[in-house]
Amino acid sequence: MIRINLLGTPKSRRSGSSGGRRPAPVSLPSEGPSTFVLALIIGVIAAVGMTVYYVILDRQHTALTQRLQTAMAENQRLSIVKAKYQESLKKKELFERRRNAIDQLKEAQQGPVDMLNLVADTVNKTDAVWLEGMTNDGKSVDFTGTALNPNAVADLMANLRKTGAFKTVEIKETAQDAQNKEIQTFKFELVCEIGKIQKKTT
Predict the structure, then answer these.
(1) Range with the lowest mean pLDDT among 7-21, 43-57, 178-192?
(2) What is the pTM of this model?
(3) Full set of structural domains in the chain with CATH
(4) In 10 A of CB 174, how many CB atoms?
(5) 74-89 b/e with 16+ CB inside 10 Å = b?
């Protein structure tokens, strides 16, 4: 019987100078990124960080500068307003002084007129009394006149006190008028210390 080898026969190995198998490639272990690359990356990160920090500081400086300029402008505006306000106060004070001076002059002019009117009204309201003279030195007023009797002089003094224009009303002298032969009359002199004249209201 004939046998046929279907699997075939192994080839004969050639004998070479090496006399063995072909050596497999040798793989070396990887060393990772180099120090120069790491240093470069760190430098780039630091530069970016410094740039960002500088930009932030520059913006803050710009903002502070603008705020400072705004504050200075506002301060200048307020200084102008303050100067105008002080000037208006000086004008107001000057106006008040002028007005007070004018009022004082008016009162000084009106004072004697009011005094005369007051005395005239008082004498007219008192019976049997005639006023002959009046002297005003600014502090007191002296009245001289004639009355039909001493009671009329007393009534005049009471009426002068009621006006409130005099602090005191005193009689300085009273005597019978010897020159008037037809009717009995009395000469009198009153001294009145001036107070505050009350102006009449209509």
Answers:
(1) 7-21
(2) 0.45
(3) 117-194 (3.30.1360.100)
(4) 14
(5) eeeeeeeeeeeeeeee
